[in-house]
Amino acid sequence: MDTKRILVVEDDAAIRRGLSDALTFAGYETLQAANGNEGLSLGLRATWDLLLLDLVLPGPSGFEILEAVHKVRPTLPIIILTARGEEADRVKGLRLGADDYVVKPFSVRELLARVEAVLRRSPERPGRVSRIPLPGGVADLARCEVRHNNGERSELSEREVELLRYLASNPGRVISRDEILQRVWRLDPKHLETRTIDMHVAHLREKLRDHGDKPAVLLTVRGRGYMFAQPA
Known about the structure:
This protein has two domains: 117 residues, 3-Layer(aba) Sandwich (Rossmann fold), CATH 3.40.50; 73 residues, Winged helix-like DNA-binding domain superfamily/Winged helix DNA-binding domain (Arc Repressor Mutant, subunit A, Orthogonal Bundle). Helix content is 39%, strand content 20%. The longest helix is centred in the middle third of the chain and has 14 residues.
């Protein structure tokens, strides 16, 4: 399974180092930000799978970072770290898009349990799909090929494999072009045209023999993105 990367935004150096050490020991990769400006920049541009976010920071507050990141990356999970125990702060954080919160002081054991739970239920959690049954054959992602029932084969590029794997790991969920750029291409959608996604999907449909007016596997949801229609 891919190693998860966790972004820790915390201005207290001792707490930040302690969190990073504990997460690294538990098998995660970490990125660190010591203030609101660094946290906002990394939150919007870096590649990460979960954000641990302090609320009281120099520069932009945790609430401001939470709101900005959630608008750009709405499906990536965020856990608030806060010394504020007031119900209003917790409710505000959850309404702005946080998945969970931990009130300081907290135990490392509790935090790791919450991180695992949030990652488990996050739609961004990538699956390691290797074989995908198709109406006319099977896509073997380990071999980078599609085998058709008539014996013909179509090779898949590395990018096509990752795109198909990501879509198939989220069956029945509409995935936007921006999300594909972020999670498969690992690029910032603000500075790129999404037409490249449409071209890759069109090529992939040809190889899957899923073309025509009514594709059965890779569905286009007008104005929203693409959806994998078959169970992975």
